[in-house]
Design a protein that fits this description.
mainly alpha, 0% strand
Length: 238
């Protein structure tokens, strides 16, 4: 009997430090979760204020919903060093791009008091998480401009053909979407309304949301290819 007792293994020794460490880690995780929830709430509040200030009319609620869809716990964790307002501003700008809205970052900055460097970094992050297709964005902007100016579906098709020419010749690299959309509208307007003297640049600027200088600089870039593009557009539509 005594020999059997001697073979019984000793009482295991528990490392109490490990137990307390696990409890501490669990507490930290819970604290982080509460902190993230608070940050999400703060950013949502800023989104409400920022989007309302932009005065987007019927698009206001759509842009807010897009912002809320992108606002995840992962984002607030990755952006802990950034201001709530900067995160909300970047979300709003990215949502505007997703909806092909004709409003530039400069216009947003002129309306809102945002930290531009922080917003730019967050936008780069959002583009990786929720990429916006530049081609679809420009097509959406063209459609909105044509609708705003009450141009026909035929005119929009001419714009699409010209856009295809720009893509074929790789001419939109490094150009802002609003500038590309405005140049397409101006170029095609001059072709379609040639007998009326073309499409006035002031009309384009009114709907495009970009400056005259940007369009003129882009136009200079297109000049070497102008005749070729016009001929190809005529082959398809005239």
């Amino acid at each position: 009997m005594l020999s059997e007792l001697k073979t019984i293994p000793p009482v295991p020794k528990f490392n109490l430090d490990l137990i307390f460490q696990d409890e501490q880690e669990e507490t930290i995780i819970q604290t982080q979760t509460k902190s993230d929830q608070r940050r999400i709430k703060e950013v949502r509040s800023q989104i409400e204020l920022i989007v309302d200030k932009l005065d987007l009319g019927e698009m206001t609620e759509i842009i807010k919903k897009r912002c809320y869809m992108m606002l995840t716990q992962q984002i607030v964790c990755d952006m802990k060093s950034k201001k709530y307002q900067s995160i909300a501003g970047a979300l709003a700008i990215h949502a505007l791009s997703q909806e092909s809205m004709l409003i530039t970052r400069k216009q947003v900055y002129s309306i809102l008091d945002l930290h531009e460097k922080q917003v730019t970094k967050i936008l780069q992050y959002l583009q990786q998480k929720y990429p916006v297709d530049k081609k679809k964005l420009i097509q959406g902007q063209i459609a909105k401009m044509c609708l705003g100016l009450k141009f026909t579906h035929k005119f929009q098709e001419i714009c699409t053909t010209f856009f295809d020419e720009l893509l074929r010749l790789n001419l939109i690299q490094g150009e802002h979407e609003n500038v590309v959309s405005a140049m397409i509208l101006k170029f095609c307007g001059d072709i379609a309304f040639n007998r009326q003297g073309g499409l006035q640049l002031a009309t384009v600027l009114q709907v495009a949301g970009c400056c005259e200088l940007s369009i003129k600089n882009f136009y200079k870039k297109l000049q070497p290819y102008q005749q070729e593009m016009i001929e190809n557009v005529y082959k398809v539509h005239f």
